[in-house]
Every structure is written in structure tokens, then in C-alpha cells.
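Quick start: what a row looks like.
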Amino acid sequence: MSLRAFHVVFVVASIVLSLMMAVWGGVNYGSDRGSVWHLVTTVGAVIVAGLLAVYVVKFVRKTRELGLS
């Protein structure tokens, strides 16, 4: 596995974990013991997942442009 492929897999795993964190925060926010911090966690995790998704797309495009496959 190349360093590029490892990097993409690692970032995709980070996106998945961030989305799982968002789901966890949303479920806890909707429960009886939910607080505003659970909502902040949910919103923050969704923002991080979005930014990571943009990053991985730009990374793949740039490495293809440079010919690093």
C-alpha cells in the first residue's frame, strides 16, 4: 500500500469516526440527559467531517495532477 493510499484510507476513517461522533452527540442531545454540549459536539463533528471530505477530494486531485498514484 502506497503512502498516498494509506493517507486516503486514514482520512476516510477519520471522516467515518467524526460522523459516528456526530450521531452519538445527536442521540445524547435527544435524550433526557442531553445538554447543549451534546449539540455543540454534533455540530462540530459534522463540520469536521465536511472539512475532511473537502480535504481528501483536493488531496486526491492534487496527487493525480502530480502523477503520484
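That is the whole record. Residues 36-66 form the longest helix (31 residues). DSSP finds two helices and no strands in the chain.
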